[in-house]
Amino acid sequence: MAKIGIVGAGNVGANTAFFIAERNIGDVVMYDIQEGMAKGKALDMMEAAPIRGYQRGIRGSDSFEDIADTDIAVITAGSVREPGMKREDLYLKNVEIVDELAGKMKAYDGTVVIATEPVDVMVMRFRETSGLKASRVIGLGGVLDSTRLRFALGRVLGMATETISATVIGRHSTRMMPLAEYCRVSGVPVSALMEADELEAVFEETRNAGDVIVEMSQRASSYYGPSAAAADVVQAIAWDTRRILPVSFVWDGQYGIKDVAMSLPVVLGWTGVVRVLEPELSEEQVGVLKKSAEELQAIFCCW
Amino acid sequence: MSKVSVIGAGNVGATAVYYIAEKNMADIVMVDVVPGMPQSKAIDFMHAAPSRDYNVTIVGSNDYAAIADSDVVVMTAGMARKPGMDRMDLLKTNVNIAKQAAQAIARYAPNALVIAVSNPLDVIAMVTLRESGFALKRVVGMAGILDSTRFQYFIAERLAVLPQDVMAMVLGGHGDSMVPLPRYTSVAGFPLTELLDTAAIEELVQRTRTGGAEIVGYLKTGSAYYAPAASVAKMVEAMIKDEKRFVAASAYLRGEYGHRDIFLGVPVLLGRNGVEKVYELELSDEEKKSLDASAVAVQEGVKTLEGIYTPG
Question: Is the domain of B129 the same as that of B151?
């Protein structure tokens, strides 16, 4: 049974532990820099175990050492957005935290799943500082965007979201790229079931989905969607399911782009990214990816 | 709690009951003509309730009256073909069983949705529709989901990916003439045609067509029931939970795809009203030709039916 470490017991961290427990995916140890926080939330969840049927343990810890011998580490530490902020505005706030964690995980033998924003740059940063293999450092970008797109498509089509696949690639920002031909219901392209302008409206809604939640709640950014996405990625790795999900990782020549992290669909398994799938893109779409890559590179090198 | 009745407590019926109970979908009634058989299976299931967390009741009966006020009735009853048995005799027997069941459904569960499962499926669905006098959308045949789930599994196995990531539409009649549509088959959104070459796809299509026979080949004296029952349970769940599930199922056509007055596997929306919509996908000439051939095969079955069947 896989051991799963969660760094940061805030909303995303705690809810990721919660979703992992609900599906009995593996044993969880949750760490937070604020003493007692992880322990308190873990104990609260375990007290629900008799009712909710948890068969694996959730443990809180005040010591980062406990993350070292896990198989999968989910990094959720860092600040979240306030109304009006873009994801990249968090870079300077969160980069030191991610750097420090990556420095401590140079000998880590598992797969790292990063939720901390701005996620694509944090994946690049973590990989460089830790020196871990690119296939072992994964960011939640496309998987969350795709989940939100599936939700929106289900609502507009009036169909069960479970039967809807959606693919969003590229940068986890308003420059994300939903791919119409790779959005399907029971195998049928959604473009056969809805008008082009309806589809474009759904894409636009997805691009802004994170911002809408920050604006609505005023106090917190979203965490149910991100936590569900994190738990899904963890499940695919922990159980070696070979599920295909779009995640962020450092590219090695895909569409001519290198050393920049963005999302593409990958086969996930025990060793992290098992295989990368490259959708067929138009020249214009490749252009958008290249533009995104330049922007990410600029933040990474020079901010 | 909703109520689901399963007519026929054989392997397909009993395994469907198992899946429905495991998800706590509905209270369940199992009806079979064999004395004691549905009762024994129902009690056996209930003995497992404490360890499997069933919150539903499962009851067995030899009397159709037990299906009273069901929300969904699943019709799995029928004789299996025994060695040396004439195909036409078997058809006559099964048509008669379906006729009686449909009359009982109309009498005891007049508001139910009916899922026809017994073979020849597209013909049995027709008998059920006629004998029940139900609205067209309330009678549907289980075939497309089963053919699709087999196709999906074969694709996942070939590509070494998770079966749940594969989605497929298999249309047409349930049998050799089924029409798998690789163009409307995807792996995590990727069109299948981007991931496998034509020859590999054709091989998997062929295996899907003979998927039922492959299992019979192994079992010798029986046929598949885990995947068929899982497909039934999916349809039941879509109806009871009003999921609006977009799937392939055998629906009564009134001109869609150029065919009328037959049951044929087509994409439908399943919800609490049964077949809430039939979708007409754009088909290539070749795909259309295959679907037409499938419709002809179903029509021949219906023609045979007219020769042996007297409406009750």
Answer: no
